[in-house]
# Entry
Amino acid sequence: MNVKRVTRIRADQSGYETFAWIMRDGRGHCLVFIRCVSAQNNVPSDAMKPQHTIPISLTCAGLILSIAWFAGSQSVDILGIPGIFLLGLCALCLNWLAFIPAVVLRTETFYDGVGTCTYLMMVGFGLYWVWPGVMEWDRRVILGTLVAIWAIRLGVFLVRRVHSVGKDGRFDKIKYNTWQFFMSWSIQALWAFLVSLPVLIMITKSGPQPELQALDIVGWSLWAKGFLIEIVADHQKERFRHRADSDQTWIDEGLWSHAQHPNYFGEILLWTGICLSGVHCYEGAEWLALLSPVFVYLILTQVSGIPMVRERCEEKWGDDPGYWAYRRRTHVLIPWPWPRSSSTHHD
# Structure
């Protein structure tokens, strides 16, 4: 069986060309793929330009390092440098190094795996640096354990899903644009650093740790509740995906019958709990830890979470009145057991 690429079918005045791949099997041939690309750089025609993506990547790096420097005012020093600054630098370097084989192979299959390793590396290095002063079931050990449990569980789930499906739909276009793909890896480094910032601050904090207080327990309880919601939501959606008709309809069962994005709610809740547990430990610039739940909420509701999911859903079911009825009936984030009131139907 031979595959032939027809290098040019049509070019229009805007400079875009249509390419096609044709499969021949000895009994004729059939067109199997058509793609519109830019004649100048051979990437999808709606790809972001380097003059936009490069500054965003550099901004991500600048935010990581500047926030780490200021938030590390009470951090242990490693070679005269705040430990939390080194953790941010490690997160950035790991993702930028992983980008190299990813762009060479044009694959996103290990993107989420690297994200998991970023969390584990930062927490692991942080605990290693302060380990001589750590006591059994110290706050730092508990927080590091919570992050490790969450990261491993979510990382394994996402990696298994990508390998099961064969791709991650978020990167269908992005991975063919080198600088936009690089931007995605930079954003992942920023994401991992910012959301784990409260933990990194408390782990690397020099001096004696405050005694455990009721707020620690409240925060960890919120983490447990959010973690459970995320697990249940992911399990329900994974089970739904394996049904024969899953491509024909949207999930409307379990937690998903009460909220459109219960997994994101669990994510926001657990990081809010982590941040809350340390409010009696923060001093000065360490209050930058509050960026963690704010960033998680904004990124999931305004940038890469809900907007991207809705765009894909509307492409599939935008002409189906039942889909819009589901959107009007269910809450966006919190899986309340009652339907939304008519006054909140605005999406």
Q: What stands out?
A: The CA atoms of residues 36 and 120 lie 40 Å apart. The longest helix spans residues 214-241.
